[in-house]
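Lab notebook, bench 4. Still working through the backlog of constructs that have no structural model yet. Next entry is a single chain of 657 residues. Request: give me the structure tokens for it.
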Amino acid sequence: IIEITNRFIELKQIYEDTARERNEEAPLLKISGAVVDEIQGSIFTVVPLGEQEADPFSVDFSFDPDRTTVDFPQNLLGVLSDTAENPQLLADTKHLIEAGSELEVRYSIIENQRVAISIKVKEPRLVEEVEAVLNHESLRAFHGVITLVELDDTLDKALGVLIATNDNQQAKVAAKITSDTEITLDGQAAGIGLLMTGQLVDVQFEFPEVGSLGDITSYGGGLWATAIRARSSAPVGEDHISGVVEALDLEVNEIKIRPTDGTLIRLVITGEVPVIRNGLNASMSAIKLGDLVVDATRIGVESDLLTRLVVVARSNVTFTGSITGIGLEPPRLLITGENGQSLNVLVTEDTWTILDGQRVKFEELHIGLRVVSGVYTVAGSNGAFYNVATMVSVESPRVERAAGIISRVNSVLGEITVLSGKSSDTRELELIMPNEPLGVNLLKDGQPISSLFEVERGDQVDIVIYAIDTGVIEKLSVVSDNYIRSRGSLVAISANQRFSQVKLVTGEHFDLWIGPESIMSLNGGRIDSLSPVVELMNGSRGERLYKNAMVPEVLFIRDSLNSDLGVIISIQFQIKVDDDGGGVDGSGVEMETSGVIEVIRGKTWVIDGNVFIVNFSTDILGEEPEVGLVAKALLVSNPGGTFIAREVNVFRRPTRE
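Model written out:
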């Protein structure tokens, strides 16, 4: 392999030399990323952006002082002279490129070294984590248009729900209104009854302080409105800016804001500009450099007059997760949280790095360690912002998860044996229950159980999380061996309409009894007996018109291990009949929707603007549903055009470590 690699490099060099002698342009490669330090000599280092064919932490480039060019944004060209034009020689202008600037480097590989041919300096842009904080804070101090006001005294502690949308941010919130919510309309005290669809609105929420990275990047939070300020109308073309306060001069009445994407914006302060800082009314003198601008309003894109300002103080942000990457120059960690979100944090000499309770050097950290507590602050200026860690506390992995089959259970002593792994690599896990009840972390067939008395030998283990050192169980979820969830086709219905014969996708046939607690649906609609199924399958003269009778999902309890009889818990029928037989095309249209739960009113729910019905056949998974949580729903259309939820998965609100 080494010989092949060397030969490839040799042939590539011959090709490039020949192309150069013939004045032919060899194809250039490209990498985008942030320059680590100011460019001093003839070499500079770039940290690439993600998803590129490059070292994830640093790439070194050399450049030719007489050939390598650079293109600057217009504001940096103006620093050189009023008549300066792109491209410029890098050697003459490298002092303008500050550490942290985002570059697009086009280069060739010559003698196994990357040589920069041309560079493009991109407009300053805030790092994703700063944008995530801004997005989070914009939900705390939300600006948008009212799309729904729902008065409902059945809501817990709430008078109703207000839904507002901000098309620019592509965000939507649902705010619970209580008797303590301060409501104004056009500056005058008002009640919930005066809030109307189409009004502009500022909503201030009662949120905890910024917590973990999961808190910042989610739509969770206590969506209780503390203040609602509505306006009947607004100037046409009103423009909204978010970013960071970079300069404030009250003597000349101007503020400079670094937006999340683009060049510095200067705004003039005239008259009494409404100012909100950390959710409270404030004066312009209370604004601090580095404050995060949730919303700065001006009359139009071309205007420089500030009409409204909402900011929050930049604060420390905590994070947890696992170390999934380590960079050395400069020292930094890639942290991935449980929600899949990742961030880079710089580690300085002042950063406390703690391993298993002991302070250690950065070099002792390695991939795979679990971050139990971390704190970073956003530092920098002029568009170059970094997450600087003040403390990173990590622990060695102490718990493990597994799945398998329960081969032994002693409910008296609280012990189980789990046979885990594949046939070629199995192991027996001897596990024990903790002294304290597991509560919702002990499940069977998806339902909480109180003890191991309900667990049997042969039950399947969905997941078990246990302490490696002691074998103490932290979470256990099992499924009965005779508890079957599958799909298939409907073969027949008994004459007394108490049994349905179903052929599963495995090829097995089961006679399933309809019990008093069985939940049934036909083409997305709830049914109380099998009569509608029989009527749809057989015409008025008894002829069988159906083309197919599918069972998209059936959940039943098998009588015994070898029995072909069972009791239905829930079953869904989907039948398509011939058009000329007078039947209904009940194939049903399926769709998925996900987003914030905007409305729950009886059986009617709204998620991301999609209205559907939740009934007894709907599987609701995850957390207790409430307005403001994020959920994903699988919907099936009714013949009448409405949608029924087959399954709703409600995600938990991230918690602080």
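Notes after review: The first helix runs from residue 2 to 21. Residues 239-312 form a domain with the OB fold (Dihydrolipoamide Acetyltransferase, E2P) fold (CATH 2.40.50.320). Flag for follow-up if needed.
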